[in-house]
Write a structure and sequence with these properties.
The chain is of the alpha+beta class and about 60 residues long. It has one domain. The protein contains 2 helices and 3 strands. The protein has a 3-stranded antiparallel beta sheet. The N and C termini lie close together (about 10 Å).
């Protein structure tokens, strides 16, 4: 299991992505680039910071070895 400290060190960049699907629904997520992968984190993008991103990655078990 990855630790918060390890994730913080591995994050290179993160970008807030907002797009519209074919039904006109707005989709928001954060694209996180790590040393070895890219993870899409679906979360509220009105307030985004590294701590919130890390917590969501761990809570949703998005970092799988």
């Amino acid at each position: 299991m990855v630790t918060k400290k390890q994730l913080k060190e591995d994050i290179i960049t993160y970008d807030v992505i907002k797009s519209v699907d074919e039904d006109g629904k707005i989709i928001e997520y954060v694209e996180v680039t790590l040393d070895d992968r890219i993870i899409d984190v679906y979360m509220d993008t009105s307030e985004v910071n590294v701590g919130l991103i890390i917590n969501r990655i761990i809570e949703d078990n998005l970092y799988v070895d």
